[in-house]
Design goal:
The protein is an alpha/beta fold. Helix content is 38%, strand content 25%. α9 packs parallel to α11 (274-287). The longest helix has 19 residues, at 99-117.
Length: 370
């Protein structure tokens, strides 16, 4: 049987306001502005991908992603989409940055290749398990409101919570203590400073929170200050997770060599897709560093692919896949199932997710090729 070839690529914009703005140390988000891709092959199959730009971290906006996708798409026409390694290497060579855009193409290629193989993506990647648990996020707010949100999640069967912090020492300690008092002593809490502290503040806050059963702290200091990250880790009983500091394999190698963190937060959207995320996980595994997979504000489409990735790698111990909760109307059909904190991947070929046709028909977009 001859290899399939890419015939055309659909690129569409999706924009929707959130019911309420969400805040964290880097800024405030009021809406989702993503890109959806369909890569079509001459065998009748297509793969679905998504770019969820984050200007604070990837330097992209929806318009930048759309332009970059239009630039990349013609280079893939006529080529074999199931040769994922070759295609993703080509994409990385053609576009140096723009990690969210590269991720969208990567997810679509993996989806199509797994469909061609007749395998769910987790199996295509060599995995066996089909479920895991995700945390739920408490966005930056007053201690009282964060405590109220924590109770609501606890009543909705949450088993672990992630708290946004990263302002002042006094306010952040008050937030964590209020949430801990609300949910009781047992529920694990994770905190994420999103680079909001300087080194001294980070050390001070983490010392004050030792008795609060904090599972780990994400990115306490500025993303490029690896030395400060390492010094904070050396003075903290609470494990330190690198997030914004970990963009690619070079960062992974350096963080591991420096002993700058205990854990990695791998986000395919900042790594440029699953192929780079897989490489980062391999570096982590060799260095004895466990991982979490996290998100920006992706829909269930990208989350479906990320969930398969989690199921395929035992060294990924933690999941932060709750971004679907900010969408008032789920635009996705099929794909990953969320049952409270429990995440269950599809057993159909590929990652199993698609954009609902009634949503797709309304999207602004373009077709390259065809």
């Amino acid at each position: 049987m001859s290899a399939p070839h890419i015939t055309h690529i659909d690129i569409c914009k999706y924009r929707v306001p959130f019911p309420e703005p969400i805040e964290f140390a880097l800024g405030r988000i009021t809406h989702s502005a993503t890109i959806f891709l369909r890569i079509h092959a001459d065998n009748g199959l297509y793969g679905m991908g998504e770019a969820s730009p984050d200007p604070w971290i990837t330097g992209e906006t929806q318009d930048i992603c759309f332009a970059a996708a239009r630039y990349l798409a013609p280079h893939l026409l006529g080529k074999d989409p199931t040769a994922v390694t070759a295609r993703t290497a080509e994409i990385d060579s053609l576009l140096l940055h723009n990690s969210s855009t590269r991720c969208a193409f990567d997810l679509a290629l993996y989806d199509l290749a797994a469909k061609q193989a007749g395998l769910p993506l987790y199996a295509y990647l060599g995995g066996e398990k089909r479920s895991f648990v995700t945390d739920f996020t408490l966005w930056l707010d007053t201690p009282e409101r964060m405590a109220t949100a924590a109770l609501a999640y606890q009543q909705a069967r949450a088993v672990v919570l992630k708290m946004k912090v990263g302002t002042s020492r006094e306010d952040d300690v008050a937030r964590v203590q209020a949430v801990r008092a609300a949910v009781g002593p047992e529920m694990p809490l994770r905190i994420d400073a999103n680079q909001g502290w300087d080194e001294d503040t980070a050390v001070g806050v983490l010392r004050e929170l030792v008795g609060c059963n904090i599972e780990f702290c994400e990115q306490p200091v500025a993303y490029r200050d690896f030395e400060a990250l390492a010094r904070v880790r050396a003075q903290s009983v609470i494990p330190i997770m690198a997030d914004e500091s970990l963009l690619d394999q070079v960062d992974a190698e350096r963080l591991a060599a420096m002993g700058a963190c205990d854990l990695f937060n791998i986000k395919p959207g900042k790594a440029g897709g699953l192929h780079n995320a897989l490489a980062i996980e391999a570096i982590a595994r060799q260095a004895g560093i466990s991982c979490m997979v996290g998100v920006f504000d992706e829909t269930r489409l990208a989350l479906s692919a990320y969930a398969h990735f989690i199921c395929a790698r035992p060294n990924i111990l933690y999941a932060d896949l709750d971004s679907y909760l900010v969408y008032p109307d789920d635009p996705i059909s099929g794909g990953v199932i969320f049952d409270g904190p429990h995440v269950i991947v599809s057993d159909t070929p590929g990652h199993g997710a698609d954009v609902r046709e009634d949503v797709w028909e309304r999207l602004e977009g373009t077709v390259v090729g065809g």
